[in-house]
Design a protein that fits this description.
The complex is a heterodimer of chains A (529) and B (305). Chain A has 529 residues and is of the alpha/beta class. Chain A has 2 domains: 250 residues, P-loop containing nucleotide triphosphate hydrolases (Rossmann fold); 188 residues, Rossmann fold (3-Layer(aba) Sandwich), CATH 3.40.50. Chain A has 18 helices and 23 strands. In chain A, the strands form 5 sheets. In chain A, strands 13, 16, 19, 20, 21, 22 and 23 form a 7-stranded mixed sheet that branches. In chain A, strand 4 and strand 5 form a beta hairpin. In chain A, helix 4 crosses helix 5 and helix 4 crosses helix 6. Chain A starts with a helix and ends with a helix. The radius of gyration of chain B is 19 Å and the shape is globular. The N and C termini of chain B lie far apart (65 Å). Chain B has 12 helices and no strands. Chain B is an all-alpha fold and 305 residues long. The longest helix of chain B is centred in the first third of the chain and has 29 residues. The chains are: A alpha/beta (529), B mainly alpha (305). At the A-B interface, helix 3 and helix 4 of A face helix 7 and helix 8 of B.
């Protein structure tokens, strides 16, 4: 059976003839009520292999790795380790067998020190002092520098990930699971991570690498298994595939290509920010430092940067969630608006889509029509002498549903019942239907499946074509490259000079995201372009 | 001089139940659970503690009764707030209301009865040293125990692995679960410890403070203990200082009335709460980052399986 599978398999697994895989799942199934999160999944992982696990949100990747790491018990099927069936009672048993995991949303404790965080991930058989010494040694060996005495909240995202990786490595795992490790890293930080992973592979370990950055997978991984709707679609060699063919397997069809209309004209400046500085409003906040830019109608400006460098604060200052003492710092449609409330800014023709869909973009337990009213009350004729025009709110829902292909169970469900992608389409649609002159949108496709992401990006392009000014904040450089005309980078509350997208290479953006400045000549050239 | 010694002795006596109850609540909150039922657990501990001592004639048995009663009360809370993931604030408030009623029912039989209060230490020579002798070497066992307890809790939280795991649960229960720690079991144990302490603190009142039981005799001490934990910013060292400070305020309030100082006693009673609010403001202003409160405090956790 195995030999037969191997014949069909275009992967380099044939090289391992005579051995058994390090880890196998056979018919692994996980059922939540009627919902099959994993439907009979077979996957083989060999030593010295970096194995990619690909799939859209909700394809079942997380469920599968949780089962392999012992966090959940499969409903059916089995997990084999060195060919023998194992039943994992929990993560500590997985760890003791040699299975390690680095989580996507870091499983760290902000108010504990690095050493305490690492100690919590180990079985506690050695003294704290011995453990600290070993921690320093491991971090030195793999080139992952860490100060064991610092508390986690003081550290950057990259350093936090190092803690996770060092913690996993200290158990000397034979098999390491990494869940979207590069999602929060700058390109340079990602490159450093790949060096570490290659080294782990050379030491004979196996790695299961979850990502949806396809170029990265092609570059790093030996094998890729694609999941869709809880089922395994295929196992292939990603180096023999194209990014497009991998994407097709993930989505199960062609993704509409996003197209910018030819001959888009820029018009008058519609959003101007002049020397905007703002102190942080919370303990972990970032101070905005002298931010200036000008955004014309018909133009899309992208703001890149690692999360937590002031993007949230900038959004709050632009939307009017935080007011500026100097009205001239934010100018919307030629009117100084720095001191104006959100509603007044909306009346000037601005619209805002925050990053957080539930709780910021929408009230989760309220219906879509009510959520439409919450941003549309000022300027969209949904309120008549203080009374809600229910028909008008429902019409907005219907129109957004139709225009942006929002899939939902009934006409007017609660916001929280929609999937992330559909809710995001609704929120973006709700704002675009108001025909804004200025749209400020933060992380428009974060955690959204590829199909919905394409719809949203196209909508933003169309809005710009229609003459609006669009400001997009995103950590996805590919997204910005696809839709933005110019890209600026936020770092520690400073905004770089925007680069024309064709000049904004990954290297340049990566340097800016890491806080280095470009050569003066180069920067000047890019701005002039 | 005599007066100073008397005041110090009464401050210690008034502070001890606050310290014991707050120590328990500190551990509970460090695990990420906010149990507002301290007052209820204390008053039931007082009723059962007095009952135990009255029936058997032993202060020790009475204290045990108080501990068991407080623990049983906290188990109701654990069942609701942890097992069934009910809102912790609502459950805690309900527990206090239940405790006040229940203690009246349990204690109805022994209102008006008296017992011999807990004996004070007497070391010939040392205890007789003027001024400090009775303060240091003439207390009842509860006072010494309360200090041992808070030192033990400090050592547990910062020097043992189990304490580290407990703090981790309070900081981020999702991560603790992902690393394979049984968050709900750890929290249940922390809640039970808090209940045991509250029960003992309640029992202290009729066993050592006043040798009889009257309904409602905790008189808001459970709430002061809760405020005290916040005042101490969840740190054992500051908790000791805060407990004696709050105890001193309640005693000074009595003396101030006696001396005829023109400060309304209601204002003095409000001082501990006022101090807590001021400390909270100062803490959040001085904070450079991180959080002083356990980050997961009061949030419901339901592990997926």
């Amino acid at each position: 059976m195995q030999a037969y599978q191997r014949m069909l398999d275009p992967t380099p697994n044939g090289l391992h003839s005579g051995e058994s895989p390090l880890l196998q799942t056979a018919g692994l199934t996980k059922r939540y009520g009627n919902f099959l999160a994993n439907d009979s999944i077979d996957i083989d992982i060999w030593p010295k292999e970096i194995h990619a696990l690909l799939g859209e949100n909700g394809a079942g990747k997380s469920t599968l790795v949780k089962a392999i790491y012992g966090l959940i018990q499969p409903s059916a099927g089995e997990i084999r380790w060195h060919g023998d069936r194992i039943v994992l009672s929990g993560p500590s048993e997985a760890r003791s067998r040699g299975i390690g995991m680095v989580f996507q949303h870091f499983s760290l404790f902000d108010n504990l020190t690095v050493a305490e965080n690492v100690a919590l991930g180990l079985d506690g058989k050695e003294s704290f002092k011995d453990m600290s010494a070993r921690l320093e040694q491991v971090s030195k060996t793999y080139g992952l520098p860490l100060d064991p005495r610092r508390e986690v909240w003081q550290l950057s995202v990259g350093e936090r990930q190092r803690i996770e990786i060092v913690r996993a490595l200290m158990q000397d795992p034979k098999f390491l699971i990494l869940d979207e490790p590069t999602a929060v890293l700058t390109p340079q930080e990602a490159d450093q991570l790949f060096i570490v992973l290659e080294r782990l592979k050379a030491e004979g370990r196996a790695i299961l690498y979850i990502s949806h950055k396809l170029e990265e997978v092609k570059r790093l991984c030996d094998t890729a298994t694609i999941l869709r709707g809880g089922k395994k679609i295929q196992t292939c060699n990603p180096r023999l595939e194209t990014a497009a063919s991998l994407a097709r397997m993930m989505v199960g069809g062609e993704i509409k290509e996003v197209k910018a209309a030819a001959g888009r004209q820029t018009t008058i400046p519609r959003l101007v920010v002049n020397d905007l500085s703002l102190p942080p409003d919370e303990a972990h906040g970032v101070r905005l430092e002298h931010i200036s830019f000008e955004l014309k109608g018909g133009e899309i400006l992208g703001i890149a940067g690692v999360a937590g460098n002031g993007q949230d604060e900038l959004f709050a200052a632009l939307s009017g969630e935080r007011l500026s003492k100097d009205p001239g710092t934010v100018v919307i449609e030629g009117i100084a608006a720095g001191h104006l409330s959100i509603t007044k800014r909306r009346k000037l023709g601005a619209a805002f889509v925050p990053e957080e869909r539930l709780g910021h973009g929408t009230a989760p337990r309220m219906k879509l029509s009510e959520n439409a009213l919450l941003t549309g009350h000022a300027a969209s004729g949904m309120v008549n002498h203080g009374f809600i025009d229910t028909a008008a709110t429902l019409k907005t829902v219907d129109k957004a549903t139709e225009t942006f292909d929002v899939r939902k169970a009934k006409r007017d469900p609660e916001a929280a019942s929609l999937s992330g992608g559909n809710l995001q389409k609704f929120i973006v649609g709700r704002e675009i239907l108001r025909n804004p002159a200025v749209l400020v949108v933060s992380q428009p496709t974060w955690g959204v499946d590829a199909g919905a992401a394409a719809v949203i990006r196209q909508a933003l392009l169309d809005l710009a074509t229609a003459g609006a000014a669009v400001l997009v904040t995103s950590q996805d450089l590919d997204e910005l490259a696809e839709i933005a005309d110019r890209i600026a980078v936020m770092f520690h509350g400073h905004l770089s000079e925007p680069l024309a997208t064709r000049d904004a290479t990954r290297e340049k953006l990566g340097l800016l995201m890491g806080g280095s400045s470009l050569e003066p000549k180069e920067a000047a050239h890019a701005v002039g372009a | 001089m005599e007066l100073v010694e008397a005041i110090v002795l009464s401050v210690l006596a008034a502070s001890t139940p606050l310290l014991i109850a707050a120590t328990g609540e500190l551990v509970t909150e460090r695990s990420g659970v906010l149990n507002l039922g301290v007052e209820g657990m204390m008053i039931v501990g007082a009723a059962c503690g007095f009952g135990g001592a009255w029936l058997t004639g032993s202060i020790f048995v009475g204290a045990l009764f108080g501990i068991v009663a407080g623990t049983l009360m906290s188990l109701i809370f654990a069942l609701m707030a942890l097992g069934l993931a009910v809102n912790q604030v609502a459950t805690g408030l309900a527990l206090t209301i239940l405790g006040v009623g229940l203690s009246g029912l349990i204690g109805a039989g022994f209102v008006g009865e008296r017992i011999t209060p807990a004996a004070h230490l007497h070391i010939p020579g040392l205890t007789d040293v003027p001024l400090v002798g009775r303060v240091l070497f003439g207390e009842d066992a509860f006072v010494y125990f309360s200090l041992a307890l808070i030192i033990g809790v400090w050592w547990f939280l910062y020097r043992t692995r189990a304490g580290l795991i407990l703090r981790a649960c309070g900081d981020n229960h999702v991560s603790a679960h992902a690393l394979g720690y049984p968050v709900l079991r750890i929290r249940t144990l922390a809640v039970m410890f808090g209940g045991a302490c509250a029960g003992l603190a309640g029992a202290y009142l009729p066993l050592a403070y006043t040798p009889f039981f009257i309904p409602g005799m905790t008189a808001g001490r459970g709430w002061i203990a809760l405020a005290l934990v916040v005042f101490a910013s969840w740190r054992p060292g500051r908790l000791v200082i805060g407990a004696y400070l709050f105890g001193a305020v309640t005693i000074l309030q009595l003396h101030a009335q006696g001396w005829g100082v023109g400060i309304p006693s209601q204002f003095m009673s409000a001082l501990p709460y006022l101090a807590t609010v001021i400390v909270l403001v100062l803490l959040s202003r001085a904070r450079t980052g991180g959080s002083t409160a356990p980050a997961a405090l009061g949030t419901v956790f339901v592990p997926d399986r």
